[in-house]
Amino acid sequence: MTALALERISAAYGEQRVLGPLTLHVARGEKVALVGHSGAGKSTLLSLLYDKRRRDIALLPQDLGLVQTLSVFHNVYMGRLAAHSTLYNLANLIRPLPKEVHRVRQVLETLDMVDKLWSPAGELSGGQRQRTAIARALNQPASVLLADEPVSALDGPRAESVMQALTQHFETSVIALHDVELALRHSTRIVGIRDGGIALDRASERLSTGDLRFLYDVSAPAA
Ligand SMILES: Nc1ncnc2c1ncn2[C@@H]1O[C@H](COP(=O)(O)OP(=O)(O)OP(=O)(O)O)[C@@H](O)[C@H]1O
To answer: Where, if anywhere, are coiled coils annotated (predicted)?
Structure first.
């Protein structure tokens, strides 16, 4: 069954077309890694996927979208805003309910962030801010994850464990990654973007890092 679908979609900024027309279908259960050089159009493709179907999606954007003046608790809680009434959300903003604090604390435990529960997001390191946004996504009641470079600020072992947690937690995922080895290890399918289109679309188990090199060498002919 298809979880995400784009049919002959294009994207432009002003007069300049940066993507498409391209077609992409993602089946339920697939773990897709989007790869390609900087500026190839990975973030734009994620935006197109998000705009097409906003429900049941956890979005983890490259700029994280945290509210700097609010605590880690409040930022992570925001992942579930849509699941509650405005009154319930307001009450939690003013005086967090123990049940919600417990839930957020549990998510933060897996990311080794419990000690920052009440710290304002603006006072965190880059890696801690990224883990807060990851926790917010994990706290969201969604089966699909769209993520843009979700582990770029994390060290090697933590990047591995977070990638594992994200791909296990969400039934379906499309994750843009610069690190091709990480992409190959944590995906079932690689979609490579080049020259505004899909230049490669293959099962990860049938690829090695060498097969992806042409995506980054803009002087080389497309495969
Ligand atoms: N707001 C914008 N206005 C104008 N051009 C933009 C805008 N956002 C992106 N672009 C252009 O669109 C193209 C694709 O950008 P996009 O951010 O999707 O690439 P990317 O593959 O995600 O890059 P990166 O890996 O560096 O994040 C680039 O040429 C970029 O300059």
So the answer is: none
Does residue 113 contact residue 77 with C-beta atoms inside 8 Å?
no
Instruction: Please choose from 15, 42, 60 the residue to mutate so as to test ligand 1's pocket, defined by most ligand atoms within 8 A of CB.
Output: 42
Q: What is the spatial distance between Cα 133 and Cα 191, in angstroms, rounded to a whole number? A: 24
Band of pLDDT at residue 197, cut at 50, 70 and 90: very high
Tell me if ipTM is over 0.90.
yes
Q: Which residues line ligand 1 (CB under 6 A)?
A: 13, 18, 36, 38-44, 62
Q: 40: CA distance to ligand 1 center in Å? A: 7
pLDDT over 80 at 208, yes or no: yes
Set out the domains of the chain in order of their start, with CATH numbers.
Answer: 1-56+144-223 (3.40.50.300), 63-142 (no CATH)
Peptide bond into 21 cis (omega under 30): yes
Q: What is the pLDDT of residue 53?
A: 80
